[in-house]
Fold this sequence. Notes:
The protein is an alpha/beta fold and 250 residues long. It contains eleven helices and eight strands. It has a single domain, classed as TIM Barrel (Alpha-Beta Barrel). Helices cover 43% and strands 16% of the residues.
Amino acid sequence: MRRVLVAGNWKMHGSKTMVRSLLEGLLAGSSADGNADLAVFPSFPYLSLAQSILADSHIQWGGQTLNPNPQGAHTGETSGSMLNDMGCHYVLVGHSERRAIYGESNADVALRFSAALDAGLKPVLCVGETREERESEQTEAVVAGQLDAVISSFGIDSFKHATIAYEPVWAIGTGLTATPQQAQHVHAFIRDKLSSLNGIMGSQIQILYGGSVNGSNAAELFAQSDIDGGLVGGASLTAEDFLAIYTAAG
Ligand code: PEP
């Protein structure tokens, strides 16, 4: 039985005051006995604060990216072992903003995926197509290529301790959401692809949907058979909006 995860990607938002009040709101409005798990992805400077507030709670936290190298002369970068040291359970890899704005290729993303596993973190591998790619019917080829970059370098078994987030780029931060049917179609494609290489892996891997998820559309998305929760950007920045999604998952 796959668990549902509702994960909040805070991107480059927040302050100490905001992080404290948001996390206290989430702790008050959720429980370890719920049907869904909760996780947050603060910016690096706030991981320590998240760790101190969330330690021993039911809410997990993670980094928004990591450098593929274990240590060294990489000014401004953060390694997987540093995230582990901050108590992170997860790390996002290959978010579309990292791919589009910071030029991370499929090969770069695969190295980060592997570095996350080496550091004892659970990578959340983000995949998804642009609007142009969808309109030219390239969605499956694009997503397959993003998965294959990891599979060809590190093998299908590397997904054993990973989560996947299908995030159509055209739906991120735009208010446009994939219909439940559109999302389910791609989630089933991802699961079938992994299942064809390792049946148990395919059936067990958690696949989140991301792209303008909110309290009104979450229940229908999460009701799809291959959607195991959501990666949420804008609506994860207030406890009220994020908890509405958490409630919809339960
Ligand atoms: C995201 O950044 O991963 C995301 C899904 O953002 P939003 O929910 O704002 O579309």
